[in-house]
Amino acid sequence: xxALPNRTQEPQTRLSGPRRIxxxxxxxxxxxxxxxxxxxxxRALPSAQIFVYDNDSSDSTAEVARIAGAVVRSExxxxxxxxxxxxxxxxxxxxxxxxxxxxxxxxxxxxxMIDRLVEEHLxxxxxxxxxxxxxxxxxxxxxxxxxxxxxxxxxxxxRSFSDILSGYxxxxxxxxxxxxxxxAGFETETELTVHALELRMPIAEIVTPxxxxxxxxxxxxxxxxxxxxxxxxxxxxFKEERPLPFFSLLFAMLSLSSLILAFPIAxxxxxxxxxxxxxxxxxxxxxxxxxxxxxxxGFILDTVTHGRQELKRLFYLSIPPVE
Length: 323
Prior knowledge:
By secondary structure, the chain is of the alpha/beta class. It contains 10 helices and 9 strands. The radius of gyration is 24 Å and the shape is elongated. The protein starts with 12 loop residues before the first strand and ends in a 6-residue tail after the last helix.
C-alpha cells in the first residue's frame, strides 16, 4: 500500500491519443458537486476525456456537467450498477477511472493510481479512503459497516482490500471489458472486487484522502438497506464462485441438525428396541438426505464453476494489456 499523497442504445466511443484515458462519473442528483468533480479531474488529467452518466436525475446534474466540459450520457435504469454496466459497454479506452460525482474523492491522487497501474502492469487500483476531516466525511456507522463487509469478503474469498466499497478505482481495458456487471445498485463495488479476486488479477490499493460532501449535497446510500443488499450479494457471489465450500457448510449444518435429532431416538431404540417419536425420526432422516444432496450439488457445481472461470479467464487474456 502506497503512502498518502498530498491534496477531482449508443455505439462504442473510441478515444484518441497514444494512451486513451476515460474518467467515468456516475451521477444521480449531484448538481451541487459534479462541476467541481469535472474541473478537478480535468486539471489532474488534461488528456483524459470525462464522461458523466446521468442516472435519471430530477435536478440539473446533466446541464451542469455539460457546461463544465464533460461528455454527458444518460442511463434511465436507476442504480449505480446499471450505470457502471452501461459505461463499460459504451466507452472504449485503455485506462478507465471510475469516481463518484459527489466530490468526496481526491482528484490529485488519480495520476499516482494510473502510474501504479501502468508501471506494475495491474488490472485494478483501488483508492482506499482515509477521511481528512473525521466524522463529517466518513461516518462511524459507515466505517464499521465497511470494515465488517471487507472482513466478510476476506473470510469467504481468502484475500481482500482494506476498503472494498470505495467508489474510486482505476481499471485496465482488460478488466472493464471482461467484467460481467450483473449488480444493479451500490453492491457493484463488491462485484468489482470479487471479479478481480476470482480471476486472480494483479491488483493494488493506494490510500487516498476522502472529504465531506459539499453543503446541500445528500448521500444516496442507505446504511441498513444497502448494507443488507451488499451482504446478500457477497453470499450470492460466494455460492456462485465457491460452490463446494458453500454447499459443504450447508451439508455440515443439515447433517449436524439431523444427528442432534436422531441421537435420543437411537439411544432409546438401543435400550428398549422401540422407535419413539416417529415424526422426529422421519425429520432427522430427511435432513440427512438433504445434507448429502447439498454435498453432491456442491461437487457438481464446483466442476461447472471451474469450467466457467476458465472461459472467463481465456476471454480476459484475449484482451490486450495496457502498454
